[in-house]
Amino acid sequence: MVFQSECCKNCCYGNGKCHSFFSSTSARNVSWDDSLPVPTCVLPWSTWIVFFASVFCFYNSLNGEFVFDDSEAVINNLDLKPESPIINIFENDFWGTKLTHNSSHKSYRPLTVLAFRINLHVMGLQPYSFHFVNILLHGTVSVLVFKVLSIVFIKTVENESPKAAFLSALLFSVHPIHTESVAAVVGQADLLCGIFFIFSFLSYIRATDVENKNTTFLWLWSCVLFASMAMLCKEHGITVLGICCIYDMIVIYKFDFQDVYYVLQRKQEVQWFLTSFLKNNLCSFFMRQSVLIFGGCSLLALRWYIMGSSTPVFQQVDNPASFEESIFVRIINYHYIYALNAWLLFHPYWLCFDWSMGCIPLIHSVKDGRILVVIIFWLFFGQLLYTCITLQDKKIRRLLCLSVSFLLVPFLPASNLFFRVGFVVAERILYLPSMGFCLLVVIGLKQLGIYFGQNHQIIFQWCILILLIVFGIRCVKRSADWSNEENLFQSGLNVCPLNAKVHYNIAKNAADNGNHEVAIKRYKEAIRLNPHYDQAMNNLANVLKDQGKLLEAEKLLLSAIKIRPDFAAAWMNLGIVQSSLKKMNSAEKSYLTAIHYRKRYPDCFYNLGNLYLEQGRYDDAYRAWRNATSLQLSHLVAWNNMVIMLDSIGDLEKAEAVGREALRHLPFEASVHFNLANTLGKAGKYVESEEHFLKAIELHKNNPTYHANLGVLYHRWKKYQLAEECYKRALEIKPDMKSSRQNLRLLQKTLSRF
Q: For residue 248, what pLDDT is reported?
């Protein structure tokens, strides 16, 4: 129930001014729209302008590739595969790892993964379709922001303010801080969360407007339902319930801190204040708050249960400040990070895909000049909070409080106040808080318009136009950075040259493209910046191993496992290097250690099988490869090695059985058909062998070995004409193929006798 404004002799203080505790009377009667630099002609088209502005700024991300985290979340995520049970989406985290696994980040976003899976099913693994969906989602969020702010202005300043809402939404739609959320495929989590976040808030607004209790309950539980959906898209979606709580107190119930302050100054008025407060119907207010609290606690309890009642485990490089023992160091660095986040909203020029690993060196001393940044930040923020309490215009105070709530509450999960987070700065977590920031900017413009008057409106019009254009250009440029990994990593290097992870990613991209010199240089720089960067050591060792620098690679891998003893991949790679150095016993021990730390490790079982094969331990090799294929049914090389080994030792019956089993899982793999055909040919099953040879050639027409071996089959089968054609076809594809040329000569000698 909304408090009514009442003035009486009991609320007059010594200065003779009348204070109404819950009054909405403004100190200055100035129309919002009259003081804002927006031409009236744009209003009929305002919704479309907001939508197209949001689409236009990020349009060039359509041609982007899968970059950075997209590979793990989409390309390598087994939960997106058609053969994966749909229930896995609700049992695994965002990256496809079991939530109960120690390595899980506990990022439970099943609705986002479901959206990825639907996109993959409809359009295939095409980055264009994912980027197209992201752009449309951002346009939708921007339009919904316009709708929400229009209602907020009506509820707080009590008149329609289309210009103010339009300007806030337009600024939101083109803010460059959103680039990561829109241009990166994984940013779809923020966009979907934003849509359900706003739906939840709109449902709560509706619940406060209706008088029928049944209808109110329906809208309240709709609010909780949408909040849960927002949370299932991204974790901080649940914070919308906090926004609803504050909205109810400030806007609907019209609670005012200034009134409380005046009462505390005059203790004799406390009884009057309590009477005035309690005489209003509190039932509706407490009922709504009870639903929010119960719904929020239930969702948090459910999420805690799904996470296995444990928090994610992060490394020190992910969030160095949170690992500091000194409370002072932790607090001052947290506040410096808050200041940096605020600066990115004000001046989104230094944008980086990753802010960890030395990008922001820690403040350890009061002599560090960056403490001045923290002081300035709190001076400005403190002044903002002071204004929220002391500003004369009660309506603007409410609007300011709501704006600050939109800014702060969605940011709380990333603040390190309640639990440790796995990042230093992440631009994507500012997607929702930026709505409050944009609203604050418009409030500031409104106040400036009142102060300077109508004579300076043209100046404000040009200023806001320039700001929007600059932001739009920055969005276009930043979207181009996200178009491919080379551009993205280079842009990160320009912003954070001390970030070891940036150098690591540049090196990894260079290695994937075959540029080993750049890869080695960047990996070494990453290790120099972070001497404990075990992943960089592991990858650098792989590059050096491929170049034949086995001793140097072994040294790096030994350093990596010393830093992280349970680093299974490093143990496996160490086994590969030691096997190449003919240190067979050490290699076997390394492989078994890797399997000890990672029980489901098909690649390690495969390499262990290769080691046993080299030692002539055929039964052990077979068992190792069997383990690899049981863990990963699509492990092609393990299947092929089993068939080839069994064929070579003369166990043709078992080789045939394994080959047929492999085809049940990999029916369209040419190499499996080829190896089975060879076994069948040796067993004298020429008809079946021919079928599989032809199938292999159908799947891979230009493989000369397939044609050559089919020629050998026909040669044995005494189908000399077909054999000759196969040998000639093999030589057409590969003229220097000696075996085919020799077989062709033998065949021609045989034919010359007839």
A: 87
Task: Say how far apart CA 510 and CA 216 lie, in whole Å.
Answer: 58
Distance CA 395, CA 161 (A): 13
Distance CA 750, CA 426 (A): 74
> Phi/psi at 222 (nearest 5 deg)?
-65, -40
Return the higher-pLDDT residue of 44 and 220. 220
CA distances from 275 to 214, 269, 676 (A): 29, 10, 90
pLDDT digits 0-9 by tens, 139-165: 999 999 999 998 888 888 766 677 888
Give the whole-angstrom CA distance, residue 442 versus residue 447: 9
End-to-end, the C-alpha distance of the chain in Å comes to 108
Beta bridge partners of 12: 18
| Cβ(417)–Cβ(457) below 8 Å | no
User: What class does CATH assign to 503-586?
Assistant: mainly alpha
433-452 and 327-346 are packed helices; what angle lies between their axes, rounded to 10 degrees?
60
The domain segmentation of the chain, as residue ranges, is 55-252+281-430+459-472, 503-586
Question: Measured at the alpha carbon of residue 340, what is the angle toward residues 329 and 352, in degrees to the nearest 5?
Answer: 115
Note the pTM of the prediction, 2 decimals: 0.80
One-letter amino acid identity for 594? Answer: A
Query: So what's the pLDDT on residue 275?
Result: 56
Query: Distance (Å, rounded) from C-alpha 509 to C-alpha 251?
Result: 52
As a whole number of angstroms, the distance between CA 669 and CA 660 comes to 12
Given a contact cutoff of 8 angstroms between Cβ atoms, the answer to whether 43 and 162 are in contact is yes
Per-residue tokens: 462 = 């040009």
CA distance 720 to 712: 10
Helices (H), 212-282: 213-233, 240-247, 257-265, 270-278
